[in-house]
Design goal:
The chain is built from 22 helices and 7 strands. By secondary structure, the protein is mostly helical. The protein is globular and about 70 Å long.
Length: 453
């Protein structure tokens, strides 16, 4: 009797490096063959149907075909599935029973990455998408004093937003963050620094962190970056800012522009490696950026020892604080109770496999009541603002918003600030009484009483 594949994995999923320098990686015939193979397995399984719009799109294509099998779907329609994937990785990490080491060897997100890279290599990426994923350039231009005022005001005027929707393809109801002239990097030198002699290294942490501020915190929410520094310094952790930085590369990776990812890597890794060699741990306040350095870059550049060293030193901020707490080095001198908090776990934090560290730290605050929502917000970096996918992003995020409405918390929060504002936008249109998210680091800042004069 022929051997039959076992049903599902008994082992944890493992990932193979992405061999994007292999010429076959960009071979469209080879790609379509692999898409057909994986799509056929997905069609037979359908466990991921409730995660995002990629899987319903695939299953509708199959069910509406003449054969009702994958062989009835036109190859040119495969891209419709690819365009709905925003690389959240949840299917790979939480749903798919056929990930490596299963013999079917399915890594759906990285196959979608390959398809996006082939599309980009063909020159098929839209100008709008190139602009939206150029976060450094957009931030620098939009942060110029006069331009910042024009941009921020225009984003609040409905007729102007309608014009932007028609010309650029950014949905008029999508949440667009404000841009700040006084960026986080400009504000940072004013922070009081911890005396290096007071720093206490732990068993796994150095007690000194170099902060990769990210495009978003730098240009869009510098206050959260300031609060992160205040919390770290309150806990006698020495904070330094990376001497210079570019975008981590995640937006360009989601576009499929792997050459741009490599350029960002070449700019960032030497600077961060120098900080590691000087005895600093590394932190980024945005889960997607942290994931990029901890997991994605090591898989894209598996033979680069500098990338591996940086990855080993990189932490999510709440992961770091949780480690400090276990080492007996985190202060718990909280002054303010937060009451009822609804906490949305960001996809790109969940797939770091670090456990619920944000909740673990927040639970140290006395009399706090936390409800956790482990479900995708549907936003992603650009998916939630593009005119052709905004409605899907709202559809995916609405169950999260509904849970928040039902719970009626004093605060709702998400480690991903973009996801938090997307959820808040859904709540706003549903006339919820308080549709403004509060970042979990801001909650710690409030609980410590650090904003009190």
């Amino acid at each position: 009797m022929a051997n039959t594949p076992r049903e599902g994995n008994l082992e944890a999923p493992t990932r193979h490096p992405v061999d994007w320098h292999d010429p076959d990686f960009y071979n469209e015939e080879s790609l379509n063959k692999e898409l057909e193979r994986v799509f056929d397995h997905c069609h037979g399984c359908r466990r991921c149907v409730n995660l995002c719009q990629a899987f319903p799109t695939l299953f509708d294509l199959v069910d509406e075909s003449d054969t009702m099998e994958i062989d009835g779907v036109a190859k040119e329609d495969y891209q419709k599935v690819v365009d709905q994937c925003y690389l959240c990785d949840l299917c790979f990490m939480t749903k798919c029973p056929y990930t490596p080491p299963h013999e079917w060897n399915i890594d759906f997100p990285h196959l979608m990455l390959r398809a996006k890279a082939v599309k980009h290599k063909k020159g098929a990426s839209r100008t709008r998408d190139k602009i939206l994923t150029s976060t450094d350039v957009v931030g620098k231009i939009a942060g110029i004093p006069v331009i910042a005022e024009i941009v921020n005001t225009s984003n609040k005027i409905k007729p102007v937003r309608k014009v932007i929707e028609k010309t650029l393809g950014v949905h008029s109801e999508a949440c667009i963050p404000e841009y700040h002239v006084k960026t986080f990097r400009k504000q940072f030198p004013k922070h009081q620094q911890v005396n290096p002699e007071q720093v206490q290294p732990g068993e796994t942490t150095q007690g000194k962190v170099a902060l990769f501020s990210t495009c978003y915190m730098n240009y869009n929410e510098p206050d959260v970056g300031n609060q992160l520094v205040a919390v770290l310094e309150h806990n006698e952790i020495l904070v330094r800012l990376a001497e210079k930085e570019q975008c981590c590369g995640m937006p360009k990776m989601e576009l499929g522009d792997l050459d741009a990812v490599e350029k960002a890597k070449q700019a960032n890794i030497p600077v961060l490696l120098k900080m590691v060699e000087d005895g600093f741990d590394l932190i980024s306040p945005v889960p997607s950026c942290t994931l990029m350095f901890k997991q994605e870059l090591p898989l894209l550049f598996p033979d680069d020892p500098e990338v591996q060293k940086v990855a080993a030193a990189f932490y999510d901020p709440f992961e770091y604080l949780a480690l400090r707490n276990r080492e007996g080095l985190l202060k718990t001198d909280f002054k303010t109770s937060l009451g009822k908090v609804t906490y949305h776990t960001a996809c790109h934090q969940r797939v770091q496999n670090i456990g619920p560290k944000t909740r673990e730290v927040l639970e140290l605050i006395p009399n706090i009541e936390i409800e956790t929502i482990e479900r995708c917000s549907g936003h992603d970096g650009t998916y939630g603002v593009k005119v052709e996918t905004f409605d899907y992003a709202v559809k995916i995020g609405r169950p999260v918003a509904n849970r928040i409405k039902k719970n009626e918390p004093d605060y709702f929060t998400s480690d991903c600030p973009i996801a938090g504002h997307h959820i808040g936008n859904i709540l706003f249109h549903a006339d919820f009484r308080d549709s403004e998210p509060t970042h979990p680091m801001s909650l710690l800042y409030i609980a410590y009483g650090l904003g009190e004069s």
